[in-house]
Design brief:
The complex is a heterotetramer. By secondary structure, chain A is mainly alpha-helical. In chain A, about 75% of the residues lie in helices and about 0% in strands. In chain A, helix 7 packs across helix 8 and helix 7 runs antiparallel to helix 10. Chain A is globular. The two termini of chain A are about 15 Å apart. By secondary structure, chain B is of the alpha/beta class. Chain B has one domain: 3-Layer(aba) Sandwich (Rossmann fold), CATH 3.40.50. Chain B starts with a strand and ends with a helix. Chain D is about 75% helix and about 5% strand. In chain D, strands 1-2 form a two-stranded antiparallel ribbon. In chain D, helix 2 runs antiparallel to helix 3 and helix 6 packs antiparallel against helix 9. The longest helix of chain D is centred in the N-terminal third of the chain and has 32 residues. Classes of the chains: A mainly alpha, B alpha/beta, C alpha/beta, D mainly alpha.
Chain lengths: ~325, ~240, ~400, ~290
């Protein structure tokens, strides 16, 4: 992605948005929700693109991350920011339980992860003493005030989730450009050929799974403290899987920033534009948009936006 | 450096290798010949770890390879090429070598990469897409290059010369010899063309029905009646003698 | 709710606040906000409650005709907490005077918190979880609660003289907490209780019902779930025919809709219900309510409609009182609402410090020949209960 | 206890049959086109709502509504195929997204046409109980759908094995290029498989409307269940679908009987994972033949 463009976008995000919408809790709230989706979308795309694994169960990591963080903060009084990081770690740890699924291919892997998501959700419902059961956890501690900026408020939350998403995307980009990224890319077609030149392919895939889980868990943890409430149906809702996938595809999951662009455009357009027009049926438009995108620009929005340069960059996105 | 003892491989009921035993000394070059389906490639797969033997011993410089996955063997110094070239998807030639060097040799050494590109005469293709923009010779060369980039001490080459027309074949042969002497490698080459073998390798192994039926100097081996009977390519034999 | 209308309403709301600065009380348009699940898994209940809200607004416009007019701007929270919060913030931005609605404790929680932040009154009947009122938000009001449902169920089970009860309940928040409350109350009174939890994905209740039939052998089976759970449970019971004296449920069971959709399945089944069906009324308000409901939606009001109506009516009354007192713009609405002491379709309503309605006790109705007859408590009953009796 | 177990197994078997009828259409399409139709559940739901409309508006017996539903669902299914066949690159993932989008559209269409209320047949016969040897109980609807489902599946299975098109379908699923060389017209065969999937979906819809309750959000749930069973079976194997579905049905009902009804889904999921880890390409996934 073009350096200058990136920097301009970051400046706009860190300075422009707060100046424009800082006062408008509603719009800022929508943007935060969109970025939450974006964070998961980046993590999903990273796994799909580098690991070559399509997951239908990222809600599992989202839920585990959010519960870990919320429980640590409420029951053990861990500082919220620390708890959030540990939420990511928790999700990463939970992904280790999924390593056996790495042997599975295509839809088999995708559904195995979905099964894990269901299992974690049911556990969260049944482990009442820790998770509060179906009732969930109300009034989860919010982010604290730091140097006069109240991170418990909309603007603070925005800055946190924005930073998470940006760092995730940059990490993704860095890996993709590294020899690790090359090796992962190489593995898609001929895994054996990479193994005989010394690439520990399974380890690399596992690493991608764990990283993807960490990012997703981190985002989930953020969301728990931002909404300050959790219950199993919400934390493990299939929405946390489905929307990010839609967003990633929509924005172009073969690019680094596609998922972010996709999440922002889908969510904001849906909520700000379509919802007022058709208060009830607006999800239908979302469906139509998705289909149209697949049929007319399968690469997603990002490639569509920059058709010309794409020719040269093609090899860069695998 | 490499010792096989009674190595045996079964695919379901079929016995692809019945107790193969031989050893390769440091810096030695061996030609591996035999009719199709004799088990040559299977032998390479066993050594490089792609296939697990059902029985037998397999040691490399005193350590047993049996429990090690492919990538660990590669890091120990066993490099191999595939009969059908397997370039890394949508990577450039240089990227192919970078991956092999980074993971196989555990270092980043652009100078050595360039050296390999020069020896294999791939310099001008270095930034082409390896899957879509190479000719057969270059594909074969890249196979060797990837193995070399892992800085092996034993190089297993699976028909890297097959399918090349005589002129480029001779050139390629010279390159291989250069590589071998430059890096002081032990080499095992699967090759049908006896002349090539004879030119490159002082020692020849003949494999038939999963068994080593002859082992010795080219002219000794190619006069062996069993070999002649087993080996289909009489014409090439004639050429050799 | 079209954009133009919303804008118009916003303008009027601004005009209103300006006028109020003067403290005078002349004819005004009041814009109410409503945040409800109109799509997603709670769509059905959300839409039901919204019908009640519309009826309340319609009737208010009639009753205050010439003096005030009322509009409601509704935003769909899509059964998602985040979007519930967004909806409240949007409504706050559009200058609504208060919010009526909300369904599902897990959405009402964050949404009412957002309302509290925006200093907006949030009145609901869609979430019975005790935590909601324990937060002590001065802007939060709720006209019903778990206790009300539990008391009704417990009371009737006692009057039936049930010695052994099997409670079959959904493992969601509202349902499981209600079930546990009933369980402890009954056990305390020496009743043997068997608890059977199931999850929402259960579509075949036969194995569960068979356990109840062969192991518990209860006098009464108590069901705590939602429509499709009840249908599943009752069908299983109808097939296995356990030797029980009654099938008792709670919300969304003794309703006109169920009577219409599953006549023979529902016969003799009990459930909580405020009004009988077809509605026979003594109070004029109830008559007008039913009539208006009929004209607007061409059907008889169900319990969701009733609750939506009552909460909105109480809110509107308080708004008018606050307006006359000139305190509406000065955050006086909450205090006005807390002064409420009204006799409504769901009985007497008053609010305590936390906005909870401690008078709330539900009534039990029984499906009888396509009708819903109120059978408990005695003073509210408009018929006699068939007991013992089951749908098979 | 023995009585409980018997009933649990019986219920599990019936439930399995029901799951299978929902899943087999998905499996068939997965087998022919390597495409998972994420709108399959919505198609099933559509059929159920057509049956509902017929019964409430015209007092037609749900069974009689099947032909009408078939026409409507068949058209929808053909439409899905028409759109799918326009996908050129990354068929696997893009077809998932496309059908997912179509699913959203269908769900919301159903929601806006029929509202969110729950519905099911009011015809008493379907709800009456059928008792086998005074120990096994079931609703007439369940038994009827189970029997009908078995017949349909057997039919499809026979068709795949013995009819010319059936062989073509299998050829296509195992080796597209070769099949095309053998003179199989892939588009013809694929649309055929979509239509048969529509038939199966229609029947599943009838089964749900008579034996369970329908509401707009159900479609997604059905799709996931069908998807899981298809993968459990492996590569669109039809007997695999039946066996996998019955396994899930039985493990669920046994969990309800001996543990708790709130753990039944957990049990199903764990079974699913265990099977996958033991045989990574499903129960019958070894080969690629559809009919195995």
């Amino acid at each position: 992605m073009n350096r200058i463009l990136l920097i301009a976008a970051l400046v706009a995000a860190y300075v422009g948005v707060p100046l424009l919408f800082g006062g408008n809790a509603y719009v800022l709230g929508l943007i935060v929700a969109a970025l939450t989706i974006a964070g998961v979308a980046v993590a999903w795309a990273l796994l799909g693109n580098l690991g070559g694994m399509v997951s239908f169960g990222h809600a599992a990591f989202f839920g585990v991350g959010s519960y870990t963080s919320a429980v640590l903060a409420m029951k053990l009084g861990v500082p919220v920011f620390a708890a959030m990081l540990l939420g990511g770690v928790g999700a990463a740890v939970s992904s280790i339980a999924m390593l056996p699924a790495l042997r599975l291919r295509g839809p088999y892997f995708a559904l195995a992860i979905l099964a894990y998501a269901h299992i974690f959700q049911i556990l969260a419902t049944e482990m009442t003493p820790v998770t509060g059961g179906a009732g969930g956890l109300l009034s989860i501690p919010r982010f604290p005030k730091v140097l006069g900026l109240d991170f418990g408020e909309k603007l603070g939350g925005y800055l946190i989730v924005l930073t998470i998403v940006v760092l995730a995307a940059l990490a993704y980009d860095a890996i993709r450009r590294s020899t690790w990224g090359l090796a992962l890319k190489a593995m898609h077609d001929t895994e054996v050929a990479t193994r005989v030149v010394g690439v520990p392919s399974t380890h690399l895939k596992a690493a991608m799974l764990v990283l993807s889980a960490f990012i997703t868990g981190l985002v989930g943890a953020f969301n728990a403290h931002f909404i300050s409430f959790l219950d199993p149906d919400y934390a493990f809702s299939s929405g946390w899987t489905v929307l990010p996938i839609a967003a990633a595809i929509f924005g172009g999951y073969r690019t680094v920033w596609g998922p972010v662009v996709g999440a922002l455009s889908i969510y904001l357009v849906d909520q700000l534009l379509f919802k007022p027009i058709l208060p009830h049926g607006h999800q239908m438009i979302l469906g139509v948009l998705l289909c149209a995108m697949i049929l007319f620009s399968p690469g997603g929005l990002m490639p569509a936006l920059r058709r010309r340069p794409v020719k040269e960059n093609r090899h860069a996105h695998a | 450096m490499l010792t096989l003892e009674g190595v045996q491989v079964n695919f379901g009921g079929v016995q692809a290798l019945k107790s193969a035993s031989f050893s390769v000394a440091e810096g030695e070059s061996i030609g591996l010949v035999g009719p199709n389906g004799a088990g040559k490639t299977t032998l390479f797969n066993v050594i490089s770890g792609v296939v697990r033997p059902t029985a037998g011993r397999l040691d490399f410089r005193g350590t047993s390879l049996l429990k090690l996955p492919e990538w660990k063997r590669a890091r120990l110094g066993i490099g191999r090429s595939f009969q059908i070239p397997r370039p890394f998807g949508h990577c450039t030639v240089r990227e192919n070598l970078l991956v092999a060097q980074r993971f196989g040799a555990g270092k980043k050494d652009p100078r050595r990469i360039d050296e390999i590109l020069d020896i294999l005469n791939l310099r001008d293709k270095a930034d082409r897409d390896a899957t879509t923009e190479l000719a057969l010779t270059e594909h074969k060369a890249l196979e060797v290059g990837k193995a070399l980039a892992t800085e092996p001490s034993l190089l297993l080459l699976d028909e890297v010369l097959a399918g090349l027309e005589t002129s480029s074949k001779r050139a390629f042969m010279e390159r291989l010899a250069a590589v071998r002497d430059r890096y002081r490698l032990a080499m095992v080459i699967i090759e049908h063309d006896i002349a090539t073998i004879a030119a490159l390798c002082p020692r020849v192994l003949v494999l038939n029905f999963g068994q080593i039926i002859a082992d010795g100097s080219p002219d000794a081996v190619f006069r062996d009646p069993d070999v002649i009977r087993s080996y289909t390519g009489e014409t090439t034999l004639a050429e050799a003698s | 709710m079209t954009r133009t209308l919303a804008n118009l309403a916003t303008v009027s709301a601004l005009a209103l606040s300006v006028a109020l600065g003067a403290g005078a009380a002349q004819a005004k348009d009041f814009l109410l906000g409503s945040e409800l699940p109109l799509t997603g898994s709670l769509a059905r209940v959300g839409q039901g409650m919204h019908e009640g809200i519309s009826v309340a607004v319609e009737m208010a416009n009639r009753n205050y005709a010439g003096r005030h007019s009322f509009k409601v701007q509704t935003i769909d929270d899509e059964t998602s907490p985040a979007k519930g919060v967004a909806a409240v913030e949007k409504l706050a931005g559009d200058g609504v005077v208060a919010i009526t609605g909300g369904y599902g404790s897990n959405i009402i929680g964050p949404a009412s918190e957002a309302a509290q932040k925006a200093g907006l009154v949030y009145i609901t009947s869609g979430g019975v979880s005790p935590e909601l009122t324990q937060r002590g938000y001065p802007t939060f009001f709720r006209i019903n609660n778990t206790d009300g449902y539990a008391l009704a169920m417990i009371g009737m089970l006692q009057d039936m003289g049930a010695k052994k009860v099997s409670i079959v309940y959904l493992n969601k928040d509202a349902t499981s907490s209600l079930a546990k409350q009933v369980n402890s109350a009954l056990t305390a009174k020496g009743v043997t209780v068997g608890m059977h939890e199931f999850d929402g994905s259960t579509s075949d209740f036969k194995p569960l019902m068979n356990k109840v039939k062969l192991q518990d052998r209860p006098d009464v089976i108590a069901m705590v779930g939602y429509e499709n759970d009840y249908v599943g449970i009752l069908r299983a019971a109808k097939v296995l025919k356990p030797q029980v004296k009654a099938m008792v449920g709670v919300w969304s069971l003794a309703t006109a809709q169920m009577a219409k959709e599953f006549p023979d399945l529902m016969e003799n089944v009990y459930g909580t219900s405020m009004l009988p069906y077809p509605v026979e009324f003594t109070q004029p308000e109830a008559v007008e309510f039913a009539a208006t409901y009929k004209t607007l939606f061409n059907k008889d009001p169900d319990y969701l409609g009733q609750f939506g109506y009552v909460q909105t009516r109480l809110l509107i009354d308080a708004v008018v009182r606050a307006d006359e007192a000139g305190t509406l713009s000065k955050g006086g609405l909450a205090d006005e609402l807390r002064k409420t002491d009204a006799n409504t379709l769901i009985g007497r309503v008053t609010f305590d410090r936390n906005g909870d309605n401690l008078n709330f006790t539900h009534r039990m109705g029984q499906h009888q020949g396509g009708k819903v007859v109120l059978v408990w408590p005695k003073d509210a009953a408009n018929g006699t209960m068939n007991f013992p009796s089951v749908p098979w | 206890m023995f009585e409980l177990t018997l009933q649990a197994l019986f219920s599990g078997l019936l439930a399995g049959g029901y799951y299978a009828t929902v899943a087999v259409g998905l499996a068939l399409v997965f087998g022919t086109m390597r495409v998972i139709n994420l709108a399959h559940g919505e198609l099933v739901l559509l059929a159920a709502y057509v049956a509902y409309a017929a019964e409430t508006n015209y007092g037609v017996n749900p069974a009689m509504a099947i032909p009408v539903a078939l026409v409507i669902v068949g058209t929808a299914s053909a439409l899905v195929y028409a759109l799918l066949s326009r996908i050129k690159q990354d068929r696997e993932i893009n077809s998932l997204i496309l059908t997912f989008g179509l699913g959203i559209i269908l769900t919301n269409a159903i929601l806006s046409i029929w509202k969110a209320d729950i519905h099911s047949t009011s015809d008493p016969w379907f709800q009456d109980s059928m008792v086998v040897a005074d120990t096994l109980f079931a609703m007439n609807a369940e038994v009827a759908s189970f029997a009908g489902g078995l017949v349909l599946m057997a039919g499809v299975w026979w068709w795949l094995n013995h009819s010319w098109q059936g062989r073509a379908v299998r050829a296509l699923s195992s080796n597209r290029a070769a099949a095309t060389l053998m003179g199989v017209n892939p588009r013809k065969i694929e649309i055929l498989s979509f239509l048969i999937a529509a038939l199966l979906a229609t029947f599943a819809g009838f089964a749900i409307y008579t034996g369970k309750t329908v509401f707009p959000a159900l479609g997604h749930v059905l799709t996931v269940k069908a998807f899981i069973i298809t993968v459990l079976a492996g590569m669109g194997s039809i007997p695999g679908v039946l066996i996998g579905a019955v396994m899930i049905g039985v493990i669920e009902s046994l969990t309800v009987t001996y543990l708790s009804a709130s753990l039944q889904e957990l049990a199903g999921m764990i079974l699913f994972l265990v099977v996958l880890f033991v045989s990574p390409s499903g129960l019958f996934g070894g080969g690629r033949a559809l009919a195995r």
